[in-house]
Amino acid sequence: MSRVTKLSQFTGQPDVERLIGFHVEACRKSGSVFPHGLFFGPPGLGKTTLAGVIAGELGVRLHYCHGASLREQEDIIGILRPVKAGDILFIDEVHAMPRSMLERLYTVLEDRVIDLVIGSNGYAVSRRVKLPEFTVLSATTSSGLVPKPFRDRCPVSVFFDFYSEDGLANAIRHMPGSDMFDDEAVRKIASVSRGTPRVAKSILDTALKSMTAFGKSPMDAVLEAMSVMGIRPDGLNRQDMKYLKTLCNIFSGGPAGLTSIATAIGEDKETVEYVIEPYLVRIGYVVRTSRGRILGSNFKGELQ
Questions:
Q1: Which residues of the chain form beta strands (DSSP E)?
Q2: What is the mean pLDDT of each run of 10 residues along the chain (304 residues)?
Q3: Confidence at residue 270, expressed as pLDDT on a 0 to 100 scale
Q4: Buried-most residue among 18, 135, 214, 245 (CB within 10 A)?
């Protein structure tokens, strides 16, 4: 999703808009900092964008980091050092942090202090450092991997669902370059973007290149973008087709375990579980059961 900075431009998630709008207005009227929050849902739905929107609405600085980069105490100190009062620290994929480092953030969230361990080899001492009044916003594609004590310390809990076609078309209209496309072309992009703004933006950007480089009409440019990106009229892409063919032909429709499928299609388990499967499950092509993945009742066997 394009990096908008105003809540009025963040469209397609009405429940999220209402919740965040309430807290932004409350902060303005009370002069308080935004409460800590946890955003969760599939990738590409606007979690990072929303952090930027909150910072933009409140006129504060946004600091970004990825959970996988916070492996040691020094890493946490490094991201906290430049944070000033009122700022927002955004931790993407917070579940990727080692559990021991996540637990170090409990006091940051609850009391805005951090306990540092100084020294080693039997001479270590703990020192509590007071931090400024700031906000920690975290995002995850797997809320089940985030410890409950961490979730409990985030009073703003935001779930991102896939966009409706109407909601996604509206979101596309706020993306740079969308004014080059008529409503029919925008609707076409929305219909094949898996309910995901990130996918829609990729199609839009590719179609823009087709229009400017080859003089294509808006609809022809969208169709060409779909072709070169391997996106079918039903929104399935090459990864989806590889997954479905594997489950259908190699595993006879299932049940098949996540690890077995990932190995068969040459992807890591996280990509299969959090990137490929959510859309296939949503449209009823795949069902996750206690015995493994099976083909869903909506799957009609069209694998060409």
A1: 37-40, 62-66, 88-92, 113-118, 125-130, 135-140, 156-159, 286-289, 292-295
A2: 77 93 96 96 92 96 96 93 96 95 94 84 79 97 91 95 94 93 97 94 96 94 96 93 95 95 94 91 94 92 64
A3: 87
A4: 135
Q: Is 92 a catalytic residue?
A: yes
Give the three-class secondary structure for 300: coil
- In a 3-state reduction of DSSP, which class is residue 114? strand
Domain range 238-295, CATH architecture: Orthogonal Bundle (1.10)
CA 142 to chain centre: 10
Catalytic residue of the set 48, 49, 135, 246: 48
Residue among 141, 196, 206, 246 flagged as catalytic: 141
Amino acid present at 109: L
Is residue 104 flagged as an active site residue?
no
Topology of the domain comprising 165-229: Helicase, Ruva Protein; domain 3 (1.10.8)
Catalytic residue chosen out of the listed positions 11, 47, 206, 240: 47
Residue 253: per-residue pLDDT: 93
CATH of domain 7-159: 3.40.50.300
Q: Residues spanned by CATH 1.10.10.10 within the chain?
A: 238-295
User: DSSP string covering 74-104, please?
Assistant: HHHHHHHTT--TT-EEEEETGGGS-HHHHHH
216 is catalytic: no
Q: CB burial class (10 A; 0-12, 13-18, 19+) of residue 243?
A: buried
Instruction: Report the pLDDT value the prediction gives residue 121, as an integer from 0 to 100.
Output: 66
